[in-house]
Amino acid sequence: MRVALFATCIVDTLKPEIGYASLRLLQAAGCEVSVPEQSCCGQPNYNNGDEKGARELAEQWLTQFENYEYVVIPSGSCAAMLKKHSPALFAGHNSGLQGRMDALANRSYELSEFLSSVLSPAFGDLPVQQVCYHDSCSGLRELGVKHQPRALLAQIKSLELKELSNAEACCGFGGTFCVKHPEIACRLADDKIAAIEKSGAQTLVGGDWGCLMHLQGRMEALGKTTDVKHLSEVLVQALEQERN
């Protein structure tokens, strides 16, 4: 199975450990993984009204990833952009590119989607701990990613998942939203952090580093000590335990 890993800008520049963890998970499940030249998915352009710029980036992504059997993306936000919005950008502009984008979008998966529906990796145990999961808005609402990461975490029997009272509420990141509306973004983050503390979980897990980075930064500003990990980082630790 030939798989291309689209790491995303945030992972590539700020948290490459997520890219390496995703790579190891896919390889361990028997995939032949390539990491083509990376570029932006175009979401910042799209969200700020620059459809021409978003179209140019979508076409660049298409050229770089079209020849692979699957594309895997460790971010619900970027995956939603490429699967749901990028094909529509070509409607009325280039029907040929729209058809190719549709075809590639149908072969592209958010990481937990791919691990749950296409692969069946085996995970070992980790030190006993309680974790909570934050559902990012794009993954949850645009892709329907909710049970997939929980099912993967449930395979690690030493982990106890503590559901947040506001698991489906926005954390306040929203890409450029947190820059444009910092007061609202901080208030939403504070609500989420309060729910994390109430849950008693030692570790916050999620599938989008943008959301997790926003929450981690706010927790550090407030002097909180909850550990923050991307789903791939937790899974690869358990995978390596199983293999050892």
**CATH fold description of the largest domain:** Rossmann fold
What is the mean predicted local confidence, pLDDT?
A: 93
CATH class of the largest domain: Alpha Beta
Total DSSP E strands: 8
**What is the tally of helical segments?**
13
Derived from helix and strand composition plus strand pairing, the structural class reads: alpha/beta
What is the CATH architecture assignment of the largest domain?
A: 3-Layer(aba) Sandwich
Q: In what range is the share of β-strand residues?
A: 5-15%
Radius of gyration: 18 Å
Give the fraction of residues assigned to helices.
40-55%
Cα(first) to Cα(last) distance is 25 Å
Spatial order of strands in the largest sheet: 2-1-3-4
- Topology as a string of helices (H) and strands (E): EHHEHHEHHEHEHHEHHEHEH
Q: Count up the domains.
A: 2
Largest sheet: 4 strands, parallel
Residue runs with pLDDT of under 50 for 5 or more positions: none
Structure, explained:
It is a single chain. The protein is globular, with a radius of gyration of 18 Å. It folds into two domains: 116 residues, 3-Layer(aba) Sandwich (Rossmann fold); 115 residues, Up-down Bundle (Glutathione S-transferase Yfyf (Class Pi), Chain A, domain 2). The strands form two sheets. It has a four-stranded parallel β-sheet with strand order 2-1-3-4, with helices on both faces. Strand 7, helix 12 and strand 8 form a beta-alpha-beta unit. By secondary structure, it is α/β, with parallel strands linked by helices.
